[in-house]
Amino acid sequence: MSEKDILNRFKSKKVIVIGELIVDAYLQGTCNRIAPEATVPVVDVSEKKYCLGGAANVAANLKAMGADVSFLSVCGNDEPAELAFRLLKEAGLKTDFIVKSKRRKTLYKTRVSSGSQLMVRFDEGSTNPLDTDAENSLKRQLERLFPESDAIFIADYAKGIIGQNLIDRIAELNVNYDKIIALDAKNYNRYRLLKPDIVKPNYVEAMNLLGLQRETILPLTGLKKLGKTLYEKTAADLIILTADANGIYLFEKGTYKFHKAVPKVQHPEVSGAGDTFLAAAMLSLSANASLAIIANLAIAAAHYVVKQPHTSVCGLKDLEQEISGCKKLFSKAELQELCKKLKSQGKRIVFTNGCFDILHSGHVSYLRGSKEQGDVLVVGLNNDDSIRRLKGSTRPINSLSDRMDVLAELNCIDYIVSFGKAGDDTPVDLIKSIKPAV
């Protein structure tokens, strides 16, 4: 099956997500002075944004990818919970399966940034284990939903929501129903009993599993040898070790299968990217995708969200565009609207143009250098008629569609738009339309 065939199956999947409900608050501003009462920076806040975090972000991603999602969690009976419920409803998620407890405070993380620099983060909310009443309420919801689900995604951020009693109950239920289990946890050892189908430890989590210091630096070739030990620690059928810019390492029942590189992104927003990655991987696994397609779709989904501001989600259409490459091809009108949005997010847009008829290393070097001048590179491409007017009747060698396809494969290029009309083969109108910084 192709990647598109797998994506078409996402809509048929019923998924339970269980874990922490977190609200991510982002305060954005500028810092140009020091407080008079103490030697601390003062941030003049100009923008506030609120997003779903933790397991709620997982649920939002799965919903955006087309799955039928039931989100189970426990929160406080407070203002952050009201905000969280509004965000959940905006994401198309039901709040029926969330237990409100007067004994807890809803988890709330506030990040304060100046420009692209994170200045400080404040964490609020209860992190102690659930009381018996709240835990029993959560178990009842789980027992009600489990038989009709296709998969369960456990997102354990070690904030007290998932205790050992709940883990044991999931194990008991799965003996009878045998659902796909995806696990993302701070402590994977607690879940070995479940024999999860897929886990995604990052480098630091892998070091913790191995009993090594988080600062330990292993050669990339050494990561390939970790499969057996990671399998012994997690009992997971499929282990995807994510190593940030160094790509992913995939193991099946402890046996190393392959390494896959990931596209480079300047100034990535990594908050929640791991949630998106595993959400796409789990849905792909539940749709009987090959290991290669599981990796491709998970990387594509994560690649999409790290380019977005703040904690974000990857929708089904976003994922389709990521894997097709068509996301890079825009009309002038579409690009004008897109650039407005990008500028509102603080992105620096770079524009360059050319025929790029016979692409060579000099072109590639030039385009990479162009991307380094900002956050987003837009390439204007002379259409076929324009090239004939400029270079003669024997050109172009490669058609516009072929040239676009080739350029779309370059990671340094974000968007491509064609231009050229009789009497004006310059990109002046295009530049006036998108108003790039460079």
Indicate the CATH class of the largest domain: Alpha Beta
Low-pLDDT runs of 5+ residues are: none
CATH topology of the largest domain: UDP-N-acetylmuramoyl-L-alanine:D-glutamate ligase
The order of strands across the largest sheet is 5-4-1-8-9-10-11-12-13
The averaged pLDDT comes out at 92
Structural class: alpha/beta
Give helix % range. Answer: 25-40%
Superfamily (CATH H level) name of the largest domain: Ribokinase
Percent in strands: 25-35%
* Shape descriptor: globular
Question: Care to describe what's here?
Answer:
The protein folds into 2 domains: 3-324, UDP-N-acetylmuramoyl-L-alanine:D-glutamate ligase (3-Layer(aba) Sandwich); 326-434, HUPs (Rossmann fold, 3-Layer(aba) Sandwich). Strand 6 and strand 7 (117-124) form a beta hairpin. The chain contains 16 helices and 16 strands. With 438 residues, the chain is an alpha/beta fold. The model has no long low-confidence stretch (mean pLDDT 92).
